[in-house]
Amino acid sequence: MNTSILVSPGRLIGAVPMRPPTQGQVESRPIISFIDGQSIYSPGQRAGQAYRVEFGAVRVYRVLANGRRQILAFHFGGNWFGLQNEDRHRSTAEAIGATGVKSVSLQEDPHIWQGLLPAVLENFLSAQEHQLVIGRQSAVERVAGFLLEMSDRSGHSHRFELFMPRVDIADYLGLTIETVSRSLTKLKKKGIIKLHGARGIEIVAYGVLQKLCL
Amino acid sequence: MNTSILVSPGRLIGAVPMRPPTQGQVESRPIISFIDGQSIYSPGQRAGQAYRVEFGAVRVYRVLANGRRQILAFHFGGNWFGLQNEDRHRSTAEAIGATGVKSVSLQEDPHIWQGLLPAVLENFLSAQEHQLVIGRQSAVERVAGFLLEMSDRSGHSHRFELFMPRVDIADYLGLTIETVSRSLTKLKKKGIIKLHGARGIEIVAYGVLQKLCL
DNA sequence: CGGGTCTTTGAATAGTTTCAAGTACAGTGG
DNA sequence: CCACTGTACTTGAAACTATTCAAAGACCCG
């Protein structure tokens, strides 16, 4: 039995004990299905559920008063999201493509939090890494890093399909769709990547891409 | 007895149970003192301690290969930091001015994590809020928001002293010191704030400042 | 094969950074 | 008490990067 399903493959668990099995309480749950763009939760809605992606993908974002959107995170199979300490959501979670999630109630069984701690810490770490990206990297560096991230999360494949449209990438990286497109074109012209249609990405020079995003 | 010391004043605790008192285990600890600029932990160092600021302030940051720095968070009295799931630190934590912290070991007593969960969730929420700031706000908006944040954390005072130099503000907001300076000048010329020396800030038009950062 | 959406490309603009001085401030020693 | 010195901060001008606005091109689905 694999008790480390709570964390992404390849990530070490250091100080955090993995004792209490959230496992059983989650696996027995039904999968809730969502269609592309359907919202899983919205701002103002009561929180109190934690969600795990079973298939498909999820974007979590917030929108400023003037309409500018920032995608805080993408979540894929196995990732937990929706974990928070306030009683109402501030962000929106939406399905990207056909998506299935399982959820557990946090109120019913407060014990569940223990098993979710590694997931919270992982979300936290991702948020910090992303601060570095959007705070201190250029457009090409951000896009390069994004492709590597997507490659990793597609099982370290050199050839993969992006789940999301350009506008999602832009709002995740703090750029515009035009800048994302231009950055991809630059990487393509340098022979570092190849584009197969709008969503298909092939990483030709993995090492160069890694050097690019520092 | 106040069991909500783990969270900043004014923040609601929703779904998270506050049961296990990390409290007693922390209060009995000695205060460790640091001088200005002294590092509390550095990248590569073994993690396994959680820290709480007793007095002074702490900056947590990461540096990219090319030397660009991003301050991930500032921590003031009562704030917890250093919480993570990996066994080695990736970031640096440094004292800003004379600073005292208490620390608890996470390995010795894994139970401690339960009491720290609200702190982790709060750090996570702050990181998300900050993504929005550096991803989607202009320079003046960022600085305006920063001043409000510092005002809040100084007990909602309209007149307060900044703990940190411009370079820290810049690296926190993903800007340069010149842009921070120019933004402050703009706010000053509009009569929204007054500057008293380099560190003293007086918010004249609180409402206007709030509208500015959306 | 057609229609609508998503993506790319181009040109002009706006905002931030970079480089370079100049100014204010705190601490030190005369 | 005041000049001196180093650091921190502000200001200006030029360069650069990303955005905005506009249009053309590619792709997907029925």
Structural overview:
Two copies of one chain form a homodimer. Chain A is α+β, with helices and mostly antiparallel strands. The first copy, chain A, folds into two domains: 19-133, Sandwich (Jelly Rolls), CATH 2.60.120.10; 137-212, Winged helix-like DNA-binding domain superfamily/Winged helix DNA-binding domain (Arc Repressor Mutant, subunit A). Chain A has helices at 22-27, 112-136, 139-153, 166-173, 177-189, 206-212, and strands at residues 32-34, 39-41, 49-63, 69-75, 80-81, 92-105, 159-161, 193-196, 200-203. The radius of gyration of chain A is 18 Å and the shape is globular. Residues 1-20 of chain A have low confidence and may be disordered. The structure holds a DNA duplex (30 and 30 nucleotides).
Task: Note the main attributes of this structure.
homodimer; about 210 residues; alpha+beta; Jelly Rolls; Arc Repressor Mutant, subunit A; 2 domains; 6-stranded antiparallel β-sheet; 3-stranded antiparallel β-sheet; 6 helices; about 35% helix; disordered N terminus; DNA-binding
The structure class of chain A reads alpha+beta
Oligomer: homodimer
CATH superfamily of the largest domain in chain A: Jelly Rolls
Measured between the Cα atoms of the first and last residue of chain A, the distance is 37 Å
- Strand fraction of chain A equals 25-35%
Task: Count every helix of chain A, treating DSSP H or I runs of 4 or more residues as helices.
Answer: 6
- Note poorly predicted spans of chain A: 1-20
- Rounded to the nearest angstrom, the radius of gyration of chain A is 18 Å
Whole-number count of domains of chain A: 2
Biggest beta-sheet profile of chain A: 6 strands, antiparallel
The CATH architecture of the largest domain in chain A would be Sandwich
Mean pLDDT of chain A: 90
Q: Order of SSEs of chain A, N→C? A: HEEEEEEHHEHHEEH
